[in-house]
Here is the input.
Amino acid sequence: MSRIKNKIRIFHAILARTGLMDYKKDMLAPYGVESTKELNERELDELISNLQRYEDERKQELDAQLRKLRSQVLTILQRMGIYKTNEDWRHVNKYLQQPRIAGKLLYEMNPDELQHLIKKLRSIERKKAEKAEREKQLAQSN
Here is the structure.
């Protein structure tokens, strides 16, 4: 396989991975072509480099977002008394794997799942606080 054909394959693979396939014509337009077959090797290298840079930046943003969401989950679990020390993942894993909670381990969840989990945990936390408050009021009135 020629080097240009291989680079075209790489270009298309990155487009597919990044979800930018619909923008291929827009990326080719500045080069005055409509097909990657019309590009020379230098132009392909430039496009691949730009896409790889974009992919790396997107991955870093996603990693930062995941870290932030995971931290929020752990903070809530800590307030709930489930996550007590940095090294005690047994309780966290057991709790999160319950089907009614998440059904997955923390590192297996994507950002959408983590956001949903955060809402669920806050709701559980709020309901526990309301129950404790009702019990406190009942104890005081007796």
Remarks:
- The chain has five helices and no strands.
- The CA atoms of residues 16 and 22 lie 9 Å apart.
